[in-house]
Write a structure and sequence with these properties.
Elements lengths: L1 H7 L13 H14 L4 E5 L7 H4 L5 E6 L2 H10 L5 E5 L12 E7 L10 H10 L1 E12 L9 E4 L5 E6 L5 E5 L5 H5 L8 E7 L3 E7 L12
Parallel strand pairs: 1-2, 1-4, 2-3, 4-5
Antiparallel strand pairs: 5-10, 6-7, 7-8, 9-10
């Protein structure tokens, strides 16, 4: 996955140019900042900073992570706000940041988390946040004719797409499309409080609050 996004960095933002998605994008670009006004935001998998550019003007601060130096280079050029930091980081090691935030945003990352690692990711994310912190996950709905076709499914239920880049390379990419019911079910695991699901034609968002008591939950090793 990391090598794919390194090669794809210069092509990445084309996904935001699809004509059929423009109405959704304009709505989300207005909605997302309203949710994060005045917060200290941990952004996971910030990529090229497309969403950072809408969050930074309203947030108190943004600490944005990505595993790809190539996409971070673009993000730093796009967002030069003094309240925003970009760092190379591991989405599965957020508990090691040594900092606490009162909000988090992960755009188009949760769909790349294997089903068997979702709990691990959310526990790690919550551990980097203050109790009651607001979390926003934003991702794709599968829409026939607009989304890349699903080419396979593994024994754990994860789905995959085959993607081609300008250099002719082809990549097998894990891309899950959780349903509203699957996302809402997280509320029963002790990982989330006050969940809210939103849906547009091509995208979904899942908001929740970090529970006050997480002491009984442990990160898998």
């Amino acid at each position: 996955m990391q090598s794919y996004y390194a090669v794809r960095a210069s092509e990445y933002d084309r996904v935001y140019l699809k004509p059929e998605r423009q109405s959704d994008l304009r709505q989300i670009e207005q909605w997302l900042p309203s949710v994060l006004v005045g917060t200290t935001v941990l952004e996971v998998a910030c990529g090229t900073g497309y969403w950072t550019q809408f969050i930074a003007p309203v947030a108190s601060s943004v600490f944005a992570l990505d595993s790809s130096p190539e996409t971070l280079r673009i993000a730093r050029e796009r967002v030069a706000a003094p309240n925003t930091e970009f760092h190379i980081g591991d989405a599965y090691a957020l508990d090691r940041l040594g900092r606490s935030f009162n909000a988090a945003f992960a755009g188009f990352w949760f769909s790349h988390v294997p089903l068997e690692r979702q709990r691990e990711f959310l526990l790690g994310l919550n551990s980097a946040l203050a109790p009651g912190a607001r979390v926003v996950l934003l991702d794709n709905l599968f829409v026939e004719g607009s989304s890349s076709a699903i080419t396979e499914q593994d024994a754990n239920g994860n789905t995959y797409q085959s993607r081609s880049l300008d250099d002719g390379s082809k990549h097998r990419i894990l891309k899950n499309f959780p349903t509203e019911a699957q996302l809402q079910a997280l509320a029963g695991t002790g990982l989330v409080e006050s969940p809210v699901y939103r849906e547009w034609q091509y995208y979904w968002a899942f908001e929740y609050r970090v529970p006050d008591a997480l002491c009984h939950l442990t990160i898998p090793t």
